[in-house]
Amino acid sequence: MSPYVVPPSSGYSSRVELWLESEHGRVKLSQVGFDFVIAAEPFELPAASRARVVVSVDGREQRLDYTLVDGLSEGQNRSKTVYAEGDTIPI
Predict the structure, then answer these.
(1) Longest alpha-carbon distance in the chain
(2) Which of 12, 38, 45, 55 is deepest in the core (most CB within 10 A)?
(3) pTM for the full model?
């Protein structure tokens, strides 16, 4: 079989959830990138706030601490992020 042939679908799809936790509360995320997050709904978070991004795949969670450079607000749902000091990037 060619490595480029996609096997027939099993009908299974992983359940993926993304959210951000901070001292200001919790908000669902619509997208997470290497250096940004996008909130799925309005959320107030001051610039330079520390927060934890949680990625859950089929109930298995991975948590990474970040600093949100730009913060989040009702008019700004995207923020640049930087890893919190001492964190490592999972590979």
Answers:
(1) 53
(2) 45
(3) 0.76
Q: Give the pair of three-digit tokens for residue 72.
A: 């989040």
Cβ-based neighbours of 39, under 8 Å, separated by 6 or more: 20, 27, 28, 29, 30, 72, 77, 78
State how far the Cα of 7 lies from the Cα of 73, in Å rounded to an integer: 44
The predicted pLDDT at position 13 comes to 86
49-88, pLDDT tens digit by residue? 999 999 999 999 999 999 999 999 989 999 998 876 555 5
Cβ-proximal residues to 81 (8 Å cutoff; 6+ apart), any chain: 35, 36, 37, 53, 66, 67, 68, 69
